[in-house]
């Protein structure tokens, strides 16, 4: 079972990197056309009229570039932290995730929330926390929620390396681009009229459990994450973007099963997202001590898209009604704070 899963995973991982490997620092028309062809063959839509296509550079491009050797070292460190974030386990990360567990292709893959758009659209206003965020605060957000952790200090060596990697991937893109960015985020198919827990459960068992395990715990071997945990204590917490049903459905449709993007129907992707979101995970760091109150406070900007605070269809359990923070020995990191310029 594990061997089969590993074999599929390896071919999947190869596929995930194959596209970005076409990258070249010259984003010329022929390169871009090749890039789009590869993506449309994988079932992704071609760019809409007026959308911007950017092929982020690879580590091979970095080696070949004439950037200062010290800068190359910092960008490489950022890459290393992004793809092996478990090295920050117990300090800033308290689950089994790497940043690249969700941002496939080392953060370069279109339709898998490529990370470089943040470098050219921030500082910007984020509805999630109601103030203007810079790139560091955006990265801090994924540490806080997706990694069930806390952010390295703003301006620290770790934060500098990570933001350098994001910014370098955006090489050549103008700041605050006017055009819409092709393949940004985890675009979701339209929500079907009805979602089914029972269908989602069966689909998960048939298509996902081989790698992520029936109980959603994934697979760790010798302290390394082979398959991350889609729910449970070792997963992202309730405040993470992927718990929004449409983001979950978009992630699944575009990326899973690994190596087979766009193989599930829209209904299937949504049913699985609904099933996954009906399982428990560590508490939202914005928790006030009461799930109904937390839902009321953060429903409008966030949880109206998740199942947090709602009764689970299968047994009526109120989701998120607990004080469990997983392996993390605290609830609220200090980066979850208001900011005003009045
Ligand atoms: C559990 C899944 C998950 C993990 C792990 C994760 N992220 Fe994210 N990330 C998301 C989601 C979901 C979004 C929002 C995408 C959207 O808006 O549709 C996002 C968005 C981002 C963005 C903004 C992209 C944009 O288009 O502006 C950046 C930057 C980012 N993440 C960096 C990181 C970093 C750095 C880490 C590791 C410390 C990380 N992420 C770990 C799920 C994850
Ligand atoms: C062949 C093994 C494999 C299969 C099958 C598979 N996944 Fe994954 N999945 C992975 C790997 C590996 C990652 C992390 C990506 C990376 O590290 O490159 C991942 C990441 C994820 C994530 C984001 C991280 C997390 O754990 O929350 C979710 C959600 C997810 N998969 C859901 C699914 C669903 C739903 C299915 C079934 C439709 C599925 N996967 C099928 C291997 C697999």
UniProtKB/TrEMBL annotation:
Residues 329-342 have a biased composition (Basic and acidic residues). Residues 1-23 form the signal peptide. PANTHER family: BLL4482 PROTEIN-RELATED (PTHR35008), CYTOCHROME C DOMAIN-CONTAINING PROTEIN (PTHR35008:SF9). GO terms for molecular function: electron transfer activity; heme binding; metal ion binding. It comes from Marinobacter fuscus. Residues 313-342 are annotated as: Disordered. Keywords: Heme, Iron, Metal-binding, Signal. Pfam families: Cytochrome_CBB3, SoxA-TsdA_cyt-c. Residues 85-202, 195-280 form the Cytochrome c domain. This is Cytochrome C.
């Amino acid at each position: 079972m594990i061997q089969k899963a590993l074999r599929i995973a390896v071919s999947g991982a190869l596929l995930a990197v194959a596209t970005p490997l076409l990258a070249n620092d010259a984003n010329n028309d022929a390169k871009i056309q090749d890039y789009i062809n590869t993506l449309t063959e994988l079932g992704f839509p071609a760019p809409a009229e007026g959308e911007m296509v950017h092929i982020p550079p690879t580590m091979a491009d970095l080696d070949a570039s004439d950037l200062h050797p010290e800068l190359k070292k910092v960008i490489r460190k950022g890459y290393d932290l992004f793809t092996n974030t478990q090295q920050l386990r117990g300090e800033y990360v308290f689950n089994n995730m790497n940043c690249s567990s969700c941002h496939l292709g080392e953060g370069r893959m279109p339709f898998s929330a490529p990370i470089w758009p943040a470098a050219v659209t921030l500082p910007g206003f984020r509805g999630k926390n109601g103030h203007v965020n810079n790139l560091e605060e955006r990265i801090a957000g994924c540490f806080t929620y997706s990694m069930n952790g806390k952010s390295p200090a703003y301006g620290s060596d770790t934060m500098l390396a990570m933001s350098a990697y994001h910014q370098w991937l955006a090489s050549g893109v103008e700041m605050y681009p006017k055009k819409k960015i092709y393949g940004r985020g985890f675009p979701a198919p339209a929500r079907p009229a009805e979602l089914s827990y029972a269908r989602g459960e069966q689909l998960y068992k048939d298509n996902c459990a081989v790698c992520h395990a029936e109980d959603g715990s994934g697979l760790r071997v010798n302290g390394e994450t082979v398959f991350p945990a889609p729910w449970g204590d070792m997963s992202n917490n309730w405040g993470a973007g992927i718990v929004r049903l449409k983001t979950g459905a978009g992630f699944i449709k575009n990326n899973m099963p690994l190596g087979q993007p766009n193989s599930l129907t829209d209904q299937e992707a949504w049913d699985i997202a609904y099933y996954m979101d009906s399982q428990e995970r560590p508490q939202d760091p914005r928790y006030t001590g009461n799930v109904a109150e937390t839902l009321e406070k953060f429903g409008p900007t966030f949880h109206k898209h998740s199942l947090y605070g709602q009764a689970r269809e299968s047994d009526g359990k109120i989701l998120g009604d607990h004080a469990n923070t997983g392996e993390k020995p605290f609830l609220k990191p200090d980066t979850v704070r208001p900011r005003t310029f009045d």
